[in-house]
Amino acid sequence: MKEHGQGRLNKLIAELAEAKRELDRLTLDEENVPELGKPCSARQIATLEGILGKPLPPSYRSFLELHNGWKSFDGDAKLLAVEDHGSGWVKERVKGLGFLFQEFESEDPFKEGAIPVLLGKKERNFLVLDPRTVRPNGEMDFVSYDLTEEEDRYKSFTSFLQDALKLTRELVKDEKEGTAEDEV
Fold it and tell me: Would 161 be classed as within a structural domain?
């Protein structure tokens, strides 16, 4: 991604981090500082591309060139650092999700070559990178799940982050103004 594009991505990440901080202040009465990883090295990116079996989508690669993961992105779920892919907890979580996909007779994205991008030890929601969806620009779908149910497909990692920002801002607005349900 060109430097100009990384500047936009950096701005999006900063806005999302600030929105998450504000939501925490409103809902938890405390401020949590986002824990964004340091930039990935070329070797780390090559390692992840080896796991995926193909080049990373440009939007995700750009994120990793800025930040190797983001702890506590959504509850206990984190945007995984490259090193997390080899960790025991990630392997166990993916294995456990595989059992659920089998039990509910749902298509298991991990058996189809997907790799986790957002994952938590206890969170129901997770995000995978689907390598079967490579487009001419190199982008691939990022797919969010609630356990075995596919929820959303994003055409790029940037579109996932944009949606997360929109949702977080809506939650902040609801906390500040209240919701229609609060008035009943």
Answer: yes
Task: Look at residue 94 and tell me if it is in a domain.
Answer: yes
CATH at residue 50: 3.40.1580.10
Mean pLDDT of 108-112: 93
| DSSP characters over the chain | --HHHHHHHHHHHHHHHHHHHHHHHHHHSS-PPPEEPPPPPHHHHHHHHHHHTSPPPHHHHHHHHH-S-EEEEETTEEE--GGGGGSHHHHHHHHHHHHHHHHTT---TTTTT-EEEEE-SS-SEEEEEEGGG--TTS--EEEEEETTEEEEEESSHHHHHHHHHHHHHHHHHHHHH--HHHH-
| Domain hosting residue 93, numbered range | 3-179
Picking from 58, 74, 150, the residue whose alpha carbon sits closest to that of residue 118 is 74
Please name the residues in contact with 134: beta carbons below 8 A apart, sequence gap of 6 or more: 54, 140
The domain total for the chain is: 1
In this structure, is residue 159 part of a structural domain? yes
Residues 15-26 have pLDDT tens digits of 999 999 888 888
In a domain, 184, yes or no: no
Residue 3 predicted with pLDDT over 60: no
Q: Tell me the pLDDT tens digit for each residue of 63-98.
A: 999 999 999 888 889 999 999 999 999 999 999 999
